[in-house]
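User: My instructor asked us to take a sequence, write out its structure as tokens, and then describe one feature of it. I'm not sure where to start. Here is the sequence I was given:
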Amino acid sequence: MQEIYTYDDYPEADDIKEESEKHESYLQLVWQRFRRSKPAIAGGMMVITLVVMAIFAEFFSPNDFNRTAMGDSYIPPSVVRFFDDEGNFSPRPFVYNLTVELDPVTFQSRWTEDTSQKYYIQFFIEGWEYQLLGLFDTNIHLFGVEEGGQLYLLGTDRFGRDLFGRAALAGRVSLSLSVFAAFVAVVVGSTVGVVSGYYGGNIDNVIQRFIEVIMSFPELPLWMALAAVVPKTWSSGQIFLVMALIFPLLRWAVLAREVRGKVLSLRQTDFILAAKEQGASDARIIMRHLFPNTLSHVIVILSLLIPDIILAEAFLSFLGIGIQEPLTSWGFLMRNAQNLETLGQNTWILTPVAFIIVAVLGLNFLGDGLRDAADPYSNL
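Assistant: Let's start with the prediction itself. The structure tokens for your sequence are:
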């Protein structure tokens, strides 16, 4: 008669079970490794800050950034003070209003502070009305000044619009366009690269020759040509979609070539051969084995591609062939700096560049951290 064993016959099973419960999942290992990288955490905070400011741009802007007032054109940034002109300290930050005078020699506008009255900065103050997330009517803003005061953290543009509010708003287009374009490039490039490397043979030859043709096109002139032929009569949504498809038009080919090389080194490994012997389909091998093993490399390319597209969009919009009104991007805000005379007199119109720098640095830091964290078993 066959003897039957129970769980109690193996006292060491409790130790095995307890030890197995200590083993952490892949996502837990990824998070633990990611949070040990201080640059990655800093980069993530920088990106999150820009995203939050873009989503709630109206809440963060103390002034209506769509209001035009030619009398307020090219106002310098407000200086937030804790000491008045007599050196007295104030625990509450305040600003002085600016008054303009015409220089009798150069005939240029000269802004001076009116120190006769202080305007204290207040938080969660009532101001101009807007729709929060396009759903709720409200007039609450994160900060602002008392009635009669002016607070322009980054100054104003030639139409008297608040540059800080418009720079926060521009993040909606710049960030969403770059993320969407990079996602399209990654999906197409990684799919083509995995298929090319896995099947090989004639399929690989045809795909690689096609990729070489795509990579032979000059990138920047092609972008400029395609962006220039976009009809000005198109809606803002159509322009956004076309611009988001122009940028990944050539970038997917580079990723496809690199992913293909990674897959070529993996397709003859033991775990792939074992999966084939067990009857796994090609789709299962690609999706469950090959693509996850290229994920860390794809993350690296994605982290580099997003800031690269941000810079490319800024360059095209600066030239006037990218994003157009009524959309606003960081590159579009830089068009005011095309005139060297205006730039020399009003240097603060370059301040939106700070948003581009923060976005590019933050995404690069974040991408480096995600790349290392995506492979938690290395260097253990």
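For the description part of your assignment, you could build on this observation: The chain is about 55% helix and 15% strand. Try explaining in your own words what that tells you about the chain.
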